[in-house]
Amino acid sequence: MHDFFFLVLVVWVCLPLIRNCLMQMESGHNSSWLIKMEERKPELTSEIMAFRDYLLSSTISDTLDVWELKDLGHQTAQRIVHASDPLQSMQEINQNFPSVVSSLSRMKLDDSVKDEITANQRMIPPKQVLNGSEWLVDMVQQELSLADQFSKLKVPHSTIRKLLLTASPPESNMIRVDFRSSHVHYLNNLEEDAMYKRWRNNLNEILMPVFPGQLRYIRKNLFHAVYVLDPATSCGLESVDMILSLYENNLPMRFGLILYSSKFIKKATIHGLHLSAKDNDGETEEDISSLIIRLFIYIKESYGTQTAFQFLSNVNRLRMLSDSADDVPETHHVDEAFVETILPKVKSPPQDILLKLAKEQTYKELSQESSMFVFKLGLNKLQCCLLMNGLVFDSSEEVLMNAMNDELPRIQEQVYYGHINSHTDVLDKFLSESGISRYNPQIIAEGKAKPRISVDDVKPVTHLLAVDITSKKGINLLHEGIRYLVEGSKGARLGVLFSSSQDSDLPGLLLVKVFEITTASYSHKKNVLYFLEHLCSFYEQKYILASSVAAESTQTFIDKVYDLADANELPLKVYKSIVSEFSADKVKKQLNKVSQFLYLLLGLESGVNAVITNGRVMFPGDEGTFLSHDLHLLETMEFKQRVKHIGEIIEEVQWQDLDPDMLTSKFVSDIIMYVSSAMATRERSSESARFEVLNAEHSAVIIDNENSSVHIDAVVDPLSATGQKVSSLLRVLRKYVQPSMRIVLNPMSSLVDLPLKNYYRYVVPTMDDFSSTDLTVNGPKAFFANMPLSKTLTMNLDVPEPWLVEPVIAVHDVDNILLENLGDTRTLQAVFELEALVLTGHCSEKDHEPPRGLQLILGTKNNPHLVDTLVMANLGYWQMKVSPGVWYLQLAPGRSSELYAFKEDGDGNQEKLLSKLITINDLRGKVVHLEVVKKKGMEREKLLISIDDENNSQRKGTHDSWNSNLFKWASGFIGSSGLSKKNESALMEHEKSGRHGKTINIFSIASGHLYERFLKIMILSVWKNTQRPVKFWFIKNYLSPQFKDVIPHMAQEYGFEYELITYKWPSWLHKQTEKQRIIWAYKILFLDVIFPLSLERVIFVDADQVVRADMGELYDMDIKGRPLAYTPFCDNNRDMDGYRFWSQGFWKEHLRGRPYHISALYIVDLVKFRETAAGDNLRVFYETLSKDPNSLANLDQDLPNYAQHTVPIFSLPQEWLWCESWCGNATKSRAKTIDLCNNPMTKEPKLQGAKRIVSEWVNLDSEARQFTAKILGDEVNPQELVSPNQSQDSPADNSLEEDVEFKSEL
């Protein structure tokens, strides 16, 4: 599992070479000796110019004044554009910027460059537009793959380029349902009703500004809120009451209703009646919904619309007053409401009118037609919905107001441009322009195509129906497909892929054969569709819907084929021949091949029915049926959004090298189907930047290549972090792909600070890295040359987000590189390894906050408990360390799995999953979105139970609680399957060495050789002052290879345990840029997730701290239920009063009497910390404060002190942390730990202070250094191993023999 591909980066830093003639070149480009060389060797012009640019880029920068920085971005653009190799020049400048900035600032600026950049920035902001540069190579690879596919289809090269340059039309979410009909019952009319006559009719008032939330009362039907509802549902009746309430409050909106009966529609579809309402008369008893609709229509016609709406309101009132548990109104509620509504308006008894209406067919037919109208629109699946000028929404009042506010700017825009005036019917205009006749969210919703799979005119849209011949749903889909063709389509064709989920009977196999021969030979015949439709209907009624006992014989089906063929004037002999030569086995094999094809190419299981339209795969839902109207809607949407622009390009192609006989409409239709299917798989936004509007004469890099299928347009700030990456990627693409390019340079104007302060190399693996003769790998590697000698440098890696990379070879301290200290050493080398990938995800619970504290475990099938974590409240985020392979993600045993289960994709009522299979098959990691649901009966249970709640609970036995169960299952696993056994062996070792008692867990972090030296001293001081077992936890991210080599031997020699832990900084959390601040953040931000869930408590001890007491005393201390315990800063050193910032200003007011604590030593009660979501709270505070550069100056210390009102801190006794700067010598004798904290007054280096302040420090240092030298095979200078007396007596002598770390610290 763990033997997987790893990436090695080799970084070299070379001493600068002596170069001549640099100073004479800084003032301009024309150096006489280069000109002479170019004249003598004209064939080497490009190489000479590249050498010139290289020399110009090699000067070391001095401090620049602000006025020298002002035009630096424009000067950079000019240098790049005028270079012989612009891409190389851009790369050399932004990757060696500190060395070339001086030369750039002296360049004379051409005003035309500055003017063009300024003009472009009026259309595009001065920042890089090309984001996500890591995906640029993937996009190019995708384009090349498409170009290759199109070439195989004989598409000309010029057309391929045009296709790839063409963006899909934006997928508008303004899909309006055209509901205009007589079945809409409007309550009001703002233009005609008397109640609105005092409103103004000036339409321009809609453009006038108003206060937020204020409505515009204009006498114009601008907003049409039409509710589609079933009046026998609580949702429908409550919507009516809401409409009446808003109407009475003069909301400037036109309200209307479209009523339907869900039960009638269900019966109609079961009986195959579809749009024929009359056929259902007298078959069954009238349902409540149809009764209400019938009476509503009667009251509207007889007494007016408002009375009809009042009737519905009365039905709802009587329903709510009844004691019935069912929300559905009963017949007596409807009758009583009818009587109550019309009683004041009639002379004859209302009961008589009811009896008379029961026999009246006209209103029944109108009721049924209204229901079938809703069915035809496809809105019955939504139960209750709102149509706001045809846009579909939920039916709540809040949604109504939001829909009105969303529609307002669209109307304002139309009024502003004069498209809507006082005479315009707004509803007719909107629905005529973008209305559709049917709504199906499956079709309208954005959907990417999955892998893709005869008439006279070109048919740009191709429907393929995957039909299971043995299922009712499959035959119904086939029937609707035939009806779709009968109804007629100008721009689409339809094909059928028959399959079978079970053994089909002979009539089914015969149907497939007859269908195949008929469509292949007689598709041009006029009556062929009627033949197929009647044959399909016969098969459905007699063999699918009928029981197996009642099913007709095979001969009956054969006779029906003959009868229908004869009736539709099809050659009877052909069908008799089909029957005589029919082979059931051949047809079964054909069906099996289709099933395998659908599974392998599309992942469709056997028996699945699907509609594949130009590569887009859809599955007809379980609710209702997929009708011919849906196929018409699908045709319209696909043609408009994905096919039209492709068809226009393909139809203009001048086909060459193609047999004229092949150039048929079928060939062109096939090409459009293949191309549109392939284009739909592109992971690309339909929104494209308008690069053509930008000027590119003086500030752009243009590289032409007519023969390339790929063209790259980019807007890049060359002096930006993204520009550093992009320049390298563009050079690689130019070398291997040779695309045409148009790179518009877009630097920041009027700079006041250096935009780049680092040297940078972007490492891109290429084929050159791999040997052609053997298995050796030569790279990838980064090479740094001509680096400054006297500046302290730090080497950082900028790696893809899912990568965890660590150094495996680094002789020198990569955190503190001071080249002048290397002596005669010519190179500094570091090798890095891709240690693991990060699996990340987000966990959600429907209609609830993310389930914070939910515990997840990850492992293999044989060992499911390899890694664990918990879900943060922050976005439900979680993360685990993995390697490529197959993993199983589960809810942890205990309270998490007792309360929750994974929700399966799709319907939440399906069987709940016990685990999720996750495959890591590349180096990009994976983001997993989990949805969990509470188990039945656990809906009110809380996941996290506070200790106080536990003590007061009535449960029997505290061992059943989460806090105790947690340690039973979780003990001993975090990233290593053998850790539990290791713990057992460690316990035996402790007993042998005389150590006993509960293990003390110590957590620390160090970076750089100096602090690793301190860390070893801290380890020894802890170990020597206790008789209990000790386990150290170190953050792996920043440890050097030498430390990781030494620590296992040190643990074995001294008898302590250790664990290397890591956590990848989440991408959504504001990231620090300085390495020291990142290290500070790791001390506090991830305490709840970086340790295994089995760990109860841990003590953080700074690396530069020396312990003088038994840490077991601190480990066992009662911190009164607080998640954190810190030591307050000392206040007895009066010399430091002026530096105690927490005693004045903001901090004094914020703390309100609470102490300000030091972060060098603290206890974390991990159980309480996780239980109270302290980690989530700290991250929220951090995210808020860290974006302000003036906040969190001491991040690891300021954050917990600032948050202590929410995350309470227990104050430890003062003797647990002493430091000379703040405490003074009076209390030093009682100190249990001594911290080498910085002295803001003297700024004394820590090495010098350590030898002076801590008497035992020298001996501990000597012991640690001798042990390290023994393990690494190094020699220790005896002069460096001074005795305690010597260190105290002659500090001056010691300073003569200082270490390299001391010098770099200074």
From TrEMBL:
Keyword Glycoprotein among record annotations: yes
Signal in keyword set: yes
Location of the UDP-glucose:glycoprotein glucosyltransferase thioredoxin-like domain: 455-680
The organism's place on the tree of life at top rank: Eukaryota
Membrane-spanning ranges: none
Subcellular location per the Swiss-Prot or TrEMBL entry: Endoplasmic reticulum lumen
Compositional bias annotation for Polar residues: 1280-1293
Sequence ranges assigned to domain UGGT thioredoxin-like in this UniProt record: 61-164, 177-443
Signal sequence annotation: 1-23
Cofactor: Ca(2+)
Residues in Glucosyltransferase 24 catalytic domain copies: 1000-1266
CDD domains xrefs: GT8_HUGT1_C_like
Chief location: endoplasmic reticulum
Region of interest: Disordered: 1275-1306
Pathway stated in the Swiss-Prot or TrEMBL entry: Protein modification; protein glycosylation
Keyword field: Endoplasmic reticulum, Glycoprotein, Signal, Transferase
Entry-linked InterPro entries: Glyco_transf_24 (IPR040497), Nucleotide-diphossugar_trans (IPR029044), UDP-g_GGtrans (IPR009448), UGGT_TRXL_2 (IPR040694), UGGT_TRXL_3 (IPR040692), UGGT_TRXL_4 (IPR040525)
Pfam short name (any one): Thioredoxin_14
Family classification: Belongs to the glycosyltransferase 8 family.
Name listed for the protein in its UniProt record: UDP-glucose:glycoprotein glucosyltransferase
Organism name: Salix suchowensis
